[in-house]
TrEMBL record:
Gene Ontology molecular-function annotations: hydrolase activity, acting on ester bonds
PANTHER family, sorted: SIDEROPHORE TRIACETYLFUSARININE C ESTERASE, SIDEROPHORE-DEGRADING ESTERASE (EUROFUNG)
Family: Belongs to the esterase D family.
Keywords noted in UniProt: Hydrolase
Protein name: Alpha/beta hydrolase
Record has Ribosomal protein as a keyword: no
Superkingdom, natural source: Bacteria
Organism in which the protein naturally occurs: Aquimarina mytili
InterPro entries reported in the protein's UniProt record: AB_hydrolase_fold, Esterase-like, Siderophore_Hydrolase_D, TPR-like_helical_dom_sf
UniProt keyword Ligase present: no
Lineage of the organism: Bacteria, Pseudomonadati, Bacteroidota, Flavobacteriia, Flavobacteriales
Amino acid sequence: MKSLSSILFFIISIYTYGQPKTYLSNTKRDSIDSKVLGITKSYQVFLPESYNYTSTTTYPVVYLIDGDYNFYYQTGIIESLSNIAEKIPELIVVGISDNGNEEYKKNCTPKTNKNPDGNSENFIKYIEEELKPKIEKQYKVSPFQILVGHSLGGLFATHVFLDNPTLFSAYIVIDPSYWWSDYEIITKANNLLKNSKEINSHFFVTVASTKQMGVFGFVDVLDKYYPNTKYWDFKRYENENHGSVGLVSVRDGLLKIFENFQLSKEQFYQLETANQVIDHFKKQSKKYNTEVRIPPMQLSKIIYYYFRKDKFDELKILEEGIATNFSSSTDDYYAALAKYLIQVEKLKEAQVLLEKSITSNPNAFKSYEALSKLYFIKKEYEKAMQLGRQSVQIAKQLKVRQWQINELVSNVKKIALKK
């Protein structure tokens, strides 16, 4: 037994080892020397939790206008909806920075006789020809991409929707400034949409308690030409002001765009086989043109259902389907199933499963942690410590969320007290 002081020193060193060296390691800032705009244009990128788990998984992308202003609360909503609530897939977020408020106004409005400094045409060109190609080259993005704009940014996003609707797969337009230039956007929409047979991108527009924004007039145009389509939605928030409406609009817009992503408990109980579970998420992958990650908490509950019902054939179907179609979910699957095996003291079966996971996926930090706990139960503390520390090291390399690292470090601290 080590002395108490050495144990405490070890715990402190492990705890320090588990802390991030940089703030928000999942966020990066970069810039482009834009030939289109004639300036250096900055942007921020937010990466989802599982981004580094595999080299094959891709992610839908959200582009935020006025990105520095909106970036942190909107990425927080996206993190909550994807990794906490598991109602939408994980997303990459790109926040497009502004070089001051005057440039923001200029880039969000078109050039007209009344607005000779308007530059929205070039701003669209910058996004299409410079920013998006760089993001697509540098990150694992899918073709499903969403443009989000608030206020004048919402006006800009609507111009993109009207002039180049397929540039993005969906639009979230928040309390947009349709009043600009005597509501000319409404006239433009009426002239363009009357000749279009269908809307090809999802358009979600909101309005707060703000007066005379012009949103109702724009919605009337949509309703006139597309009264029955599922591709546009409007929501009014009478109890929100222009500043507060952004939070609820992004939440509701993403939930609408990804409304069928989650496999609810009620839906799951209606399925006859695990093949249908795999089919559900394959359909989501196809719909959003990406390889989605099966939400880990949902997956764990599905595994537990089959496990307690002794439906091991279904578990095998689930394992094979995940291995073939959802590479970022393999560690989630093995670690969850092993946890249930350990709970019923089937240690040999759990060990075989976890070693298989680690052999096939060197980044399987959850499986390393589960195997560490298994050796702890067997009182093989040196081996448990080795595997526990490996789980922390891998998780840090993958830049997983800090709360997960805290859990891994807690396991190592528990082992240290037994050594």
